Fold each of these.
Amino acid sequence: MQETSAILFKHFTLSTIRYFVLAGIPFLLFYKFFTTWFNENKIQNRKANVKDFVREIGHSLQTTAVFAVIGYLALQSPIKNYTRLYTNINDYPGWWIWVSLMISLIIHDTYFYWMHRLLHHKKLFKLAHLVHHQSTNPSPWASYSFHFFEAWTEGAVLFVIMFLIPIHPVTVILFTIVGFIINVYGHLGYEIAPKRLRNSILFEVLNTSVHHNIHHSKFKGNYGLYFRFWDRLMGTEHPDYVKEYDRIQQKRFGTENQKAPLQSQSS
Ligand SMILES: [Zn+2]
Ligand SMILES: [Zn+2]
């Protein structure tokens, strides 16, 4: 019992450090030290205030505690014996670490899209998801700002992945780090995508910070996490997304970027 609580405490400490480092560094850069520098990158004109940050950090700490329990259950409790977790790295080729990471992100995106649509059902929205949507102008601190119930449904994706594909603990750790970095980017409040993304095929596939920011400001549309795939397939992408993305990028890069919106409207 004492050992279990020590493991849980270790998971909680690591997941809290991950939160404060990966959300804290961008917060300091964009909201404290270089705010003027990034002025053109700002998605909404409004400024999030300290009250928002405190609420977001409070809920996020609760989420890190839930994720600590999930991490323990998935990796160190007897549940792991029913999953496809492998600990001998030589059981699969080295490249599988990276391929399984990519597949994990695709599974997560699909899981998240449908869970998120469900959470927007009237009753579930009021009961749980409203907590995340209190951040109508999100900051990096909002990345884990979930209701207790939503924190469990968010974290449970780990079990889904571990039941579906052979996965090494290293990939699990990479998945939580990469997933969280993309999550922070979605809640950054600033668009940092390079200019060339707009005319690349990746723009058609990947989500951007503007994409998720619109979900927070409008409450409807743009339910995807990493990719645009499900929103486009299900017709749930916000109709103003590309226009809004182009508006921000033109603010950053000037009128020379104007070719892009014309191309987008014809596609
Ligand atoms: Zn939502
Ligand atoms: Zn969000």
Note: The first helix runs from residue 2 to 33.
Amino acid sequence: MKKSAPALSVCPQCHSYKLPHRVCPVCNYYDGRKVVEDEKSSK
Ligand SMILES: [Zn+2]
């Protein structure tokens, strides 16, 4: 199976690659807003 170009977006905040329609894992911004996830149980 050949992978085509990964569907990545560039975060407008920190300009890192991130998954589209996802909160940026680097700066936690999404759509110009800071998003705080409540997922302490998974880590
Ligand atoms: Zn970011």
Note: The chain has a mean pLDDT of 85.
